[in-house]
Amino acid sequence: MSSITEIKDAMPAYAKDLKLNLSSMANNPGMTDQQVYGTALACAFASRNAKLIKAVAAEAKEKLSEEAIEAAKGAAAIMGMNNIYYRFVHLVSDAEYGTMPARLRMNIIGKPGIDKADFELFSIAVSAINGCGMCIDSHDKVLKGAGVKKETIQNAIRIASVIHAVAVVIDAEDALAD
C-alpha cells in the first residue's frame, strides 16, 4: 500500500470509523497543510508501521517542503528519546531524578528548520502517542505561548489518534494474515 487511499480501502469493516476519520484528516480548520501533513507524518513514524509510513510520506511529499519533511521525521525521532526519558522522570517515585541533568542532545528542538510552533505541534502529537504527560504539558505551554489556538492543538491530537489507531489495525490484520 503506497497511498492513504489504499490504506483506507484496506480498512476492515470493524474499522469503518477509522476509515471515515482518515478521510477527513486533511479537513482541519485553522491548520495549514504543513501542520496537518507534518503532524500526520511525524505520527506515522511514531506508529512504526511501514505501510502507513510509506502511504503518509507519499502524500506528505506532495504537500510539504523537504525542510518540513525532515522536521516531521526529527520530531518523531527526538520525541522517541525524550518521551521515554521524561516519562521516567515523571513517573519514578524518587524526585531527585527530576533535578539531575538529562545530558541528552536535543538541538533540533531549538533549530527545527521550520516554524518552531509547527515543530512543537508535531512534537505534542508524537508525545500523545508515546504517552508522556510531562512532554505533553511542556509542548502545550510552548504552543499556547506562541499563540496557537486550543482547537489547533486538539486537531493535531486528533490526527495522532487516528494515525495511531490505523497503524494498530494494519498491524493486527497483518498478524492475522501470517
Automatic annotation (TrEMBL):
<dbReference type="InterPro" id="IPR004674">
    <property type="entry name" value="AhpD"/>
</dbReference>
<keyword id="KW-0049">Antioxidant</keyword>
<dbReference type="InterPro" id="IPR029032">
    <property type="entry name" value="AhpD-like"/>
</dbReference>
<comment type="similarity">
    <text>Belongs to the AhpD family.</text>
</comment>
<dbReference type="GO" id="GO:0051920">
    <property type="term" value="F:peroxiredoxin activity"/>
</dbReference>
<feature type="disulfide bond">
    <location>
        <begin position="132"/>
        <end position="135"/>
    </location>
</feature>
<keyword id="KW-0676">Redox-active center</keyword>
<comment type="function">
    <text>Antioxidant protein with alkyl hydroperoxidase activity. Required for the reduction of the AhpC active site cysteine residues and for the regeneration of the AhpC enzyme activity.</text>
</comment>
<keyword id="KW-0560">Oxidoreductase</keyword>
<feature type="domain" description="Carboxymuconolactone decarboxylase-like">
    <location>
        <begin position="96"/>
        <end position="177"/>
    </location>
</feature>
<dbReference type="GO" id="GO:0045454">
    <property type="term" value="P:cell redox homeostasis"/>
</dbReference>
<protein>
    <recommendedName>
        <fullName>Alkyl hydroperoxide reductase AhpD</fullName>
        <ecNumber>1.11.1.28</ecNumber>
    </recommendedName>
</protein>
<keyword id="KW-0575">Peroxidase</keyword>
<dbReference type="Pfam" id="PF02627">
    <property type="entry name" value="CMD"/>
</dbReference>
<dbReference type="InterPro" id="IPR003779">
    <property type="entry name" value="CMD-like"/>
</dbReference>
<keyword id="KW-1015">Disulfide bond</keyword>
<dbReference type="InterPro" id="IPR004675">
    <property type="entry name" value="AhpD_core"/>
</dbReference>
<dbReference type="GO" id="GO:0015036">
    <property type="term" value="F:disulfide oxidoreductase activity"/>
</dbReference>
<dbReference type="GO" id="GO:0032843">
    <property type="term" value="F:hydroperoxide reductase activity"/>
</dbReference>
<feature type="active site" description="Proton donor">
    <location>
        <position position="132"/>
    </location>
</feature>
<feature type="active site" description="Cysteine sulfenic acid (-SOH) intermediate">
    <location>
        <position position="135"/>
    </location>
</feature>
<dbReference type="GO" id="GO:0006979">
    <property type="term" value="P:response to oxidative stress"/>
</dbReference>
